[in-house]
Every structure is written in C-alpha cells, then in structure tokens.
Amino acid sequence: MKIAVVGAGYVGLSNAVLLARQHDVTVIDVDADRVDAVNAGRSPIIDRELEDHLARGGLSLTATRDRRAAYADATYVVVATPTNYDPDTNRFDTSSVERVTAQALDVNPAATIVIKSTVPVGYTATLRERHPGASILFSPEFLREGQALHDNLHPSRIVVGSDTSEGHLFAKLLSEAAEEEDVPVLFTGSTEAEAIKLFANTYLALRVAYFNELDTYAAHHGLDARQVIDGVGLDPRIGTHYNNPSFGYGGYCLPKDTRQLQVNYDAVPQNLISAIVEANTTRKEFIADDVLRREPKVVGIYRLTMKAGSDNFRESAVQGVMKRIKARGVKVIVFEPELEQKRFFNSKVIRDLDEFKAKADVIIANRRTDVLDDVAEKVYTRDIYGRD
User: Would you identify the family this protein belongs to, as annotated (predicted)?
Assistant: First the structure.
C-alpha cells in the first residue's frame, strides 16, 4: 500500500517510519534539510529509536517536497502538520490541515485523509462538510517527544474517529506495525476522538499541576515534599507515576491543548479546566520568586529543553521562569547546546559549561544531572526523583 505522510516532525516522521516497515511511504516536508536528512538515513529530530531505524535502513521510505506526486497514488494521506495555538483567535491554527486536505483531494479524490494533527473538538466534522463525499477521519496520536517512535511501536491504545471500512483498515495498519499484541483499539465518532485527545492531555497537565502545587505548599511551609508525595502515591488509585515536581508543564502539546479545551468549554460550566491553565502560570511565578529570594546577581539557565533525550524547548516552563527573573532586573545567562544563536531573548548563550558554572550565582535546572554535581550548592531544582 502507498501512504503519504505530510510533516516530518515528531508525529509525522514516527508514523512514517512505523508504516514504512511494511508499506511504501512518502513523507513530505517543506524543509529541504529535513527531506535530505531522511533520505540520507538520518533523523532530523532527536529520538533514539527514530535515529536507529533510519540509520539501519530496510524501510520503504522516501522524503520529498513534491506534494502532488506523493498524493497521486496514495491510499491514505496522513496529515501531521503543526496546529499552533493562536492567542488572537483563541484556537488552534488549522490552516495547514485545511490546505493539505484540499490539495490532496484535488490531486487524488479517492484518497482517505487521516488527520493526526491535534485539532479543536468538532473540527473534522466541519472539514467533511467542506469536502462532501470525501473520506476524512481523525486519529489522535499519544506520544512523547524524544520517544515518539517507541510510543508508536508500543501504543497504549489506537483511537480512530471513524467506524468505517477506511477507519478499520487504518487501525489495522497501525496494529500490524506495532510490536505489541492485543493493543486496545477504539472506534469512535470524529468529535469524540478529538475530545479524547484534548481531555487526555489536559488530565496529564492536571497531574503535573497537582504535584507542583503540592511541592509549592511543602516548600512554603518547610515540609519534605518527597515524603508527602511518596505517601500520597501509595494509594493505588493515585499511584507513583507522573508525580515528579517541575517548573510547570510545557512542550508543544500540553500548553496549547489545555487552552484549546478551555475555549471549547465556552458555553459549558467549568472550574477545573481554567484552574489547570492558571496553575501553570502560578507555578512559574513561585519558582521565579523562590530563586530571587537567594538574591543572585547572575542566574544561569541550564538547558531550555523540557526533558532529557529531546531537542525541543517550545514553551518549556523554564522560559517562563527566565522571563520573570529578567523582568526583575536580574541578569540571566543560558547554557543550551541546541541553540546556534549567541543570544536567547536577549540573554547571552554560553556553550562552555565550565564558563557557565563559574559565571552563574544560581543555576536553574528543571531536572538533576551529574554534570552539575561539582556546583551542587549553586543548583536550584524542584526535581525529587531524578526523572521526567
């Protein structure tokens, strides 16, 4: 089967590699460097299993910038383009999804469009109305950046928002490509599938916010946060997973998905969803204030990335902390090997770790790392368990 995947980011490339183990897949991206990297067997993003699979070869995978040729004979066109949250419109910017869908159906009306991009609740139904007779379905992804292919090879569930033959076949493609047996498969309406995605991510954000607020309380009252979290987590209904305090939830998905769900609640009574969004802001303010209580002259930001094994720092919580510290007139320097520029938000980027350690009075690190052990007295972190 021939499949076109639009977008060589985490979602698109991991799905392309997953499906290319058994099918002919063409991944389309506007970035020539990404296209060249994939064709050379290199991953343009940091993801260990993606890197291994591309380097090892044996995939029926081609990357291109030529959309029309890729659409022409594709049975499925998987749309994995960005849908950034637009603060001016208070919703996801779905223009890339609309553009790709229209282009693909213009070239190949028989193709089934599978939307993997995260979209507002009710969006797919609206898109179907714009393209009567077309086969368009939504199938949410549930992956972690830096472990995208792993999470597609070992999925917790497969959700397809279409109880049709095309939907069932697509679910079968994903199930057959996975390395797990008996993966739960759920067929729903498209709007329900969209809601599953947003509610799942908002619950994850809720859990992050909850343990962060627990940690804020412990810090304020001089309690041992670990003892409290350990005791709370021993209740099997709560558990000991996803409970490590941080500077706040961040990355590409959680901040925008929680805000989009809040907008979808426009005419529906709610308190909790808005509280989750607001809690993230409160946590960053607490962290900044807690750092400033140490009266540093220079604050060092050790890594902008959200977690180990990722090159992404889109909306990382530490950036919000950094901006608040700078707003109080304190100098900030940044150690981030993934940055090519010399300055980040008008703060100096230092690539020499020893120089960075020497210049910073306080070093902010979202997660502990042994490379900072020699300056442990300078390190500020809320990390308890040494994991994401």
Answer: Belongs to the UDP-glucose/GDP-mannose dehydrogenase family.
